[in-house]
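Hi U.,

Before I forget, here's the chain from the pilot set. I'm dumping it here mostly so it's searchable later in email.
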Amino acid sequence: MRLVLSPLDLCHAFLCIGLMLFGDGGVSSVLALGASIICSKMPGLAPRQRAFCQNRPDVMVAVGAGTRIGLEECQYQFRYHRWNCSSLSDRTIFGQELKVGSKEMAFTYALLSAGIAYAITNACGQGNLSDCGCDKEKQGFYDKDNGWRWGGCSADVRHGIMFSRDFVNAREVKRSARTLMNLHNNEVGRKTLEKSMKLECKCHGVSGSCTMKTCWMTLPNFREIGFTLKEKYKKAVMVEPYRARRQRQPAFLIVKGPHSYQKPTETDLVYTDYSPSFCEEDLVTGSLGTKGRMCNRTSTLEDGCALLCCDRGYNTFRYTRTWQCNCKFHWCCHVTCNTCSERTDAYVCN
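Structure:
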């Protein structure tokens, strides 16, 4: 059997080899030796991103982790929609590049940008990266306004955001409406993470009294980022490029509409193209179609057979589900169970 490793798996492999052969000091040597090979084989990277990769291959492990949690969250948030993120395969580190600047792409770019910032921040706090750690500006200082002292290991989210901005934005070279859209949505994702940081505190004192309190900043559950960006997706703003006189390239984005010269706010997700129906397979729009998707016959929401199947109808399949039930422990020492079953209907789009 032939074993095929992804580029990010190779990053992990080089780390392990360095530790086994040379200890902690050998990681950088082995990574430097294999960096050019790994980065040249990693699909989907822009030239400036390959330079990042070659200089810091250890960071690419965190980048890959951030991309994965972003894609997994995307699939969770859209699991009942016609477009469910399945087209964003892992053939490249960022998934398939899509041509349509729809609301779905706005959400995806924001989520991936936030995911990479999240993973870098987490790796810093765990001591997995050499150039960062805890937030040094929040160590030992007393907050007079709130009456606590900064302690513990505050997550250095600013470092994660800075790296995400430098690395992710490096893809956007040619100035166009789509580039401005991507850069804007990337920043929305990072700002969402920054505003979602959590304050945790611990009380100190005799018999549980809180005569002194130390606090630190922690990362939220990434699911919270997903929910927040999903709400922004629902309220996304359609924009168009504004070109100043005698300029071929767009200067910035404005809200689309008659006599509208208003810029979108920094918290708005923006898009330039209307979303397709996603009913039929279309690789350009990232649609895999909905044929073969399971639906809910009684629901009137996105997962309902009427909407999900695009009025093509659906087939009903009946199957029997079995499981162990009514289990009892007998002394000593075995368990007996009954076998329970039920007949269940499943509905699949034509």
